[in-house]
Amino acid sequence: MIVNTEGIVLKQRKIANNRRIIVTFSKTYGKINAGTSINEKSKGKSALALRPFTYAEYQIFKGRDYYNIDSATVKKSYYAIGEDFDRFIVASQILEYIDKITEEGQPRPMLFDLTIEFLESITRVSGNYETLLYAFIVKTLRMQGIMPELKCCIDCGKPLSEFGKGKGKKIKMFSVTSGGVICENCHKAETSTGSALIYSPSFDIIEVLQYFILKPMETFEKLKLRPEVSEQIKNILAEYIKHYLDIDVFKDEKG
Ligand SMILES: [Zn+2]
Fold first, then answer.
1. Which is nearest to 91 in space by CA: 167, 214, 9, 4?
2. Distance 247 CA to ligand 1 centre (A)
3. Over the stretch 159-215, which tens digit does the pLDDT of each residue have?
4. Residue 237 contacts residue 130 (beta carbons within 8 Å)
5. N or C end of the chain, less CB within 10 A?
6. Would you put residue 76 in left (φ > 0), alpha (ψ -120 to 50) or beta?
7. For residue 78, is pLDDT > 90?
8. Distance from the CA of 180 to the center of ligand 1, in angstroms?
């Protein structure tokens, strides 16, 4: 059966007989491993559409248990990603992350649309790529079913309004192990176990996470985070994603 779908190339690898396997995040079928004989060095429109970061329309032969890309047409080539090393690293981390959180043959339309928004945004900016990376990851938490609790203490249910009562300052601590904000009492209880992953950010973690969740991707093109805030968000997200999805999301980063 011949089918058409939009997709984004995540990666490719060579196999025998001048054939390649293209791992594509398709809109209709989710992630698919599709074989193709289209020559990568040819200057045809189909060859261009098989490069990573390319958003294309694919004509695919769908067999019972395999896919073959017969032809492809570029819808948008995000070639600018390859023109800046830092941009390339961040965009590669996103493709790798998508590859890890998607299952073959499971359509993920919301994640697909978010990926296109991300590629559009990262191509428009020069610098500030990390903020887009954090925004993308935070926006996937709910889709992955691992949204942290931000409205009350995840351990005892105490509402945020009662946090830090009598002490003047409302401290918001975030427990990766429990999966959300925790109150002072539960903080004491968790730290006594010695194994909890708890952060006490210098900024309002709830406000920041909700901002990432609610605002569209393009908002983050111009949002400059202070370096210390960026560093803390990065650490919390890295631990959180590692804890719940077993993925090292920032691992390819230099330095
Ligand atoms: Zn509590």
1. 9
2. 28
3. 988 887 655 456 679 999 999 999 989 998 888 887 779 998 888 889 999 999 999
4. no
5. C
6. beta
7. yes
8. 10
Domain boundaries along the sequence of the chain: 128-255
Which residues does residue 205 pair with via DSSP β-bridges, in sequence order? none
Measured in angstroms, how far is the CA atom of residue 191 from the centroid of ligand 1?
A: 12
Instruction: State the pLDDT at residue 161.
Output: 84
* CA 204 / ligand 1 centre spacing (Å): 17
d(CA 138, CA 186): 24
What is the Å distance from ligand 1's center to 190 Cα? 10
pLDDT the model gives residue 40: 79
Q: Are 12 and 32 in contact (CB under 8 A)?
A: no
CB 55 within 8 A of CB 8: yes
Distance CA 215, CA 231 (A): 21
Spacing, Cα 186 to ligand 1 middle (Å): 4
Ligand 1 centroid, distance to 212 Cα (angstroms): 24
Pairing type for strands 30-36 and 173-175 reads unpaired
How many A from CA of 241 to the centre of ligand 1? Answer: 23
Q: Rounded distance, CA 72 to CA 69, Å?
A: 7
